[in-house]
Structures are given as C-alpha cells and as structure tokens.
C-alpha cells in the first residue's frame, strides 16, 4: 500500500513540508493549492523538490465550485480549469481534485453535473490528466459520496473518477459499507482523516479538528476495509486540517501521520481475506502484563533524598549493580532502580530533567517482537552498549528523551536482577507498607503532545483509550487522557498542559520537556499502609479541610470515617463500580511525586479529586519555584 499526505496537514513553508513528509517515509504528497500560492518558488522548482525527495505528486487540490453553473459562469469555470491544467503540467501532477460546489449559483442536478464532468474529462484527457470528484459533506447539492459516485458513473469518462474522503462520509454518519458497490478502478484517490466525536458544524469540525486515523473516534478502519473490498489499490492519503498541527513540528506531525497509516493498514490487513490484504501484518500489539521496573536518574545528593523518600514508602534497598553506580529498591513486586552513573542516557536525562523517572521496563510476552513492531511503526530503538556481562534489554525512545524497555515475561526478569545486582542488606530498613505493584504511571506533557503520545501507545500496545477529561488547575486546564488494558498491567494517565501556569505546565516548562510526573503504587488496605507510612516518617500531602466537609455532603459517609480519611490525608472517590482511596506524597524538588491507591472495584483514576490535589501541591511548592508573573504566558 502506498502512502501519501496532503501538504495542508503539516506546518511550515512548502519546502519544509516536503522535506518533513519525505523524512517520515511517505511515498507521495497531495499539493494543497494554498501552499503553492504562498511560496516564492516556481512550479518547476517545486516539482524538482518533490522529485528530488523521491516523492510522487499524487494530487493537486482543491478546485472549487466547478459543476452545474449557468452561463457565463460555466464557461469561466472551464477557463479556470484549463489554467489549472497548465499549472499541473508544470508541476508534473496528473490528478486534480474537484470538491462538490458550495456556490449559490450552482444549479444542481445529477445529469447537468455529469455532462459538465464529461466535457471536462475530454479536456483533461487531451493533456493526459485526470479529475477526481469529491463530495464535501457541506456541499450545496452534493454532500454524499453516493451522489458523487452517481455523477461520476453517468459522466462515464475514463479521465473522470471519484475521490473518497473518510471524514466527509463518516462525519455525516453515512454507512461506509455503501462504498463496497463502487468499482475500485473508478476511485482515483482515497483521503483519510479521523476526528474526535463532537457535535458541531460539519465545516468547522472538518477545517479545525481533523486528526490522524486512530487519534479520533471515527470508524476509519471500517471505511478502509470497504475501500479494499472494491479492489482499489491506489494511495491512502492523509488530509488533515488541524489547528494544533498547523502550529506543531512538521517532522513530528508527518511522523505521526505515517505511523497512523502503518498501524491502520496493519489493522485492516488482519481483517480482510489474505488475497486482498494490502500488506503483511506486523507482530501483534503487545499485551503489557505489568511495569517491571522504573528507573530514576539522579546525582548522588538527589539519590539520597529519593532513597529517603522510598524508605518512608516502605521500600528496602535490595541490591547494588555489579559494575555500575545503580541501586535497586524493592517492595512487593515493585522494582525501583536509582541510577547515578556519570555517563550514558541516565546522566543525559538527569542533566536535562533533574531527578527523573526516565526509563520504565514493561513486561511483555515477547520483547523482540514488541521491538520489531515498534520499529516498523517508526520508533527509534534505544541501544546503549551494556557493560560487559550485563543483559541487553530491547528498548525504544519514548517521549521527552525517556526510554521504554521491553522485558520478557519469562525468566528474563529473574535473570536480570540476579545477574546484574548483588544482594545487599539495607542499612536503614523501613517498615513494609504493603505496596504490591505499580497501579499507574502519569506522564505530563504539553497539550499538543497528547495525540502523539496517544498514537504511540495505542499503536504499539494492546490498550484502549478512555474519553479525555478536563482537570481544573487554579492556573488553567489540563487535558487528561487514560490509556489502559484489561488486566491493569498497563495504566497510563497522560496529562497535557494548556499553559505553564498549571502544575503540569510548570513541570514541563521547568524540567525541559515531557516526562513521568508521578507513579501510583497499589495497596489492598490503604488505612494500614498509611499507618506504616506514618511510622516510617512519610509526609502526606494535605488537601483543604473543605474537601472533607464536602465528602460528607457528597457521599453521606459517617463522620468517623471522614475523620479517619482526613487525619491520614486520604482522598476518596466512589462510582457505580466501587470505591477509590488515594494518598499523595509531597512533591520533590524536581516536580516528581508518589501516590498510593486502593481500588475497591473502582476502575477510574480519581479525576474528581485531581483539582484538590493540585491546589494542595501548589500551596506546598516554594514560591520561588513557581513561574513569576512576568513570565506567565
Ligand atoms: Mg478531502
Ligand atoms: Mg494518579
């Protein structure tokens, strides 16, 4: 399957767009007229640039308001088309997109439209060009691909074909199964876009909020399966109008686009008969069975502080690396690695971000296959030379310079710890607090990195995304996106900061990029855990007393129960599934904090409690570390 993307989908000047599209691995691009009109380069130069990058020019678009005009407008439209044909020949483009007319002067009528296209087909064919007709879902007379197809069918001209666009079909709720009846060779190109499900004006929705397949909520996969059933074998071309993407990094957006198509084709390939399958499937999306370890980068002073915090949480020092300045802390099934090496990725991560949970190990069935899939999806392998005798863990670079290792579920893990670490007796053993495993990992980023992360995780792992929720911070909104699997082996909360005055925004700004901001451990009995933590000297985060008064009002909990929660610093939530208890530690100097949770059937993440927690954390932050008013923006 050949891939293409419209230049309108990525940011930058036209030369920058072309370079980014080529670097991301696309086979071709659609040239969006506006991108050509604003550049100083000649069409011949643009042609050389596209060819020089090894890209095909798959489509010139759009030509608007062509069909069913009365004279003299009709003749003017044909004259306009001829001038665009001249331009296309200079550019080396052979296919033009005409979208259904929105002109108040258009008369409508399927036969009148077909006659116009038949005449235009003659003119295009004389030059060896083709024209594709696309139904805009807000078109004046034609707003459904079935009507556009009927016009193309009646035009009955080899140079006139259909353009399908998943947004126009799916946003309007048209069943994509209706595509199956169209002959594949009459479809000239297929454009793909997804979008979040929002009830709004179709035009506004399309022009501002489209996103990459898999980033939104439309059934793009079903659309593509129907397209394949027609025998269509041409380009799948992304056409994404998105305000955020227009201001984002061209390379990153193009990279996401290519990843979305590779992932989409993989899903389609698995569900269509082998003879029709557009590609060979990649290794399966990996099931993550748990977080095998979290590795912090720190310097010696901060490592001491981190160790002290871990001990208050009931961790004991369990090992020292045989050849590196790396310590292992353990409790239950949780492994926390503290790396104070003076070189390598840990050191780079520390210098960039301060004390940071820069690497995680995810337990999968087949680490090698997981790596293969990740690389096929465009992830960058992480391959730091291990010390002699150490085990080489497959890994990739995650967001913000982080590293994700893949750990085989089998004996690999046992071997890893026993092989690389010498058991040590903790000189200051703490009281075990009953923490059993990692419940969730929270990553913080700027809001425009959320979709990139979402696509990264959902294309690689067998996970689902929950609806995005808004969390109110006194300094602004934070968008929170949960990614999780059925077993609970992987639960991620991705928090996207809208501005730097939020706690999340402050974290990303001060620490130079996205990263893990908190880790939540699971206990079966938070009251007992809290007592053990208290004995260990743990300092819980204290939220406002008003919060506890409201708990009584909201849930009708007995006073004694609310008082027990308040005195332990425990937050409470309840939904139809069950109850949720949360306890937060104080935020460290580099913005990181720990959470302990007890789930009593509850499947959420305490989003309701987040504003109270955030407000309390902000009160605890030293004023000097908060952004000064002049810097606010
Ligand atoms: Mg389109
Ligand atoms: Mg949390």
Please tag this protein with its features.
alpha/beta, TIM Barrel, 2,3-Dihydroxybiphenyl 1,2-Dioxygenase, domain 1, 3 domains, 9-stranded mixed sheet, 8-stranded parallel β-barrel, 21 helices, 24% strand, disordered C terminus, binds magnesium ion
Specify Rg, calculated over alpha carbons: 28 Å
What is the level 1 CATH name of the largest domain? Alpha Beta
The unique ligands bound to this protein are:
magnesium ion
> How big a fraction of the residues is strand?
15-25%
Stretches where pLDDT falls below 50 for ≥5 residues? Answer: 624-633
Q: Would you report the number of β strands?
A: 25
Termini separation comes to 44 Å
Overall pLDDT = 93
Number of domains: 3
Largest sheet: 9 strands, mixed
CATH topology of the largest domain: TIM Barrel
Number of helices, counting only DSSP H or I runs of 4 residues or more: 21
Gross morphology is elongated
**Helical/strand content category:** alpha/beta
Q: Tell me roughly what share of residues is in helical segments.
A: 25-40%
Examine the secondary-structure arrangement and name the CATH architecture of the largest domain. Alpha-Beta Barrel
The CATH homologous superfamily of the largest domain is named Divalent-metal-dependent TIM barrel enzymes
